[in-house]
Recover the amino acids of this structure.
């Protein structure tokens, strides 16, 4: 994909424009050459024409802390899973995962589908959908005490833009989400084709 020029905040508070580049992997838009999540937002807009209002970036600790804050996320696997790479071990059926086990679930790439990135993305999207259902089913969005706990965990664990970068703002956003049926949440993945310039050697 093509990455646009990206004005990026530096540690000293100044703004530096990172020059754009062409025909690179999408993940070049984040972290490489100093690019920040704002650059990823600009890249998505350039690719799709859709305006991105806010972003949330979760690292490994965020997955562990947030899933613990909501008392686990329900997942269902069709067969036994024992992945030595991610350390995920689950029997076939439904489970509630949190903490390290939740992190292992979203990181595994050798347990589902064709064992590639696209299948892992699909699993991660299903996991986020289940997290949304968990927030609704536990009445977290209507309980000020529960909502504050989750918002506090999110503030400490997530990297977000300034528009939602406080407990109060996250709680306000969550209250808006309580009126949305989880069934109406849609995840989308852009179609992709194999890159003939890249070869995988068995």
């Amino acid at each position: 994909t093509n990455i646009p020029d990206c004005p990026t905040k530096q540690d000293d508070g100044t703004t530096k424009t990172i020059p754009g580049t062409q025909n690179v992997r999408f993940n070049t838009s984040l972290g490489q050459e100093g690019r920040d999540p704002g650059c990823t937002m600009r890249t998505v807009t350039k690719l799709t024409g859709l305006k991105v209002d806010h972003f949330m970036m979760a690292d490994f600790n965020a997955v562990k802390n947030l899933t613990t804050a909501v008392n686990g996320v329900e997942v269902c696997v069709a067969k036994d899973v024992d992945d030595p790479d991610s350390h995920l071990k689950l029997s076939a059926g439904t489970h509630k995962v949190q903490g390290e086990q939740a992190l292992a679930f979203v990181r595994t790439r050798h347990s589902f589908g064709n064992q590639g990135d696209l299948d892992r993305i699909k699993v991660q999207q299903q996991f986020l959908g289940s997290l949304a259902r968990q927030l609704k089913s536990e009445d977290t969005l209507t309980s000020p005490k529960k909502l504050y706990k989750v918002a506090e965990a999110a503030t400490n664990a997530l990297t977000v833009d300034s528009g939602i970068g406080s407990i109060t703002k996250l709680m306000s956003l969550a209250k808006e989400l309580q009126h949305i049926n989880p069934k109406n949440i849609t995840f989308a993945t852009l179609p992709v084709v194999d890159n003939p310039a890249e070869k995988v050697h068995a």
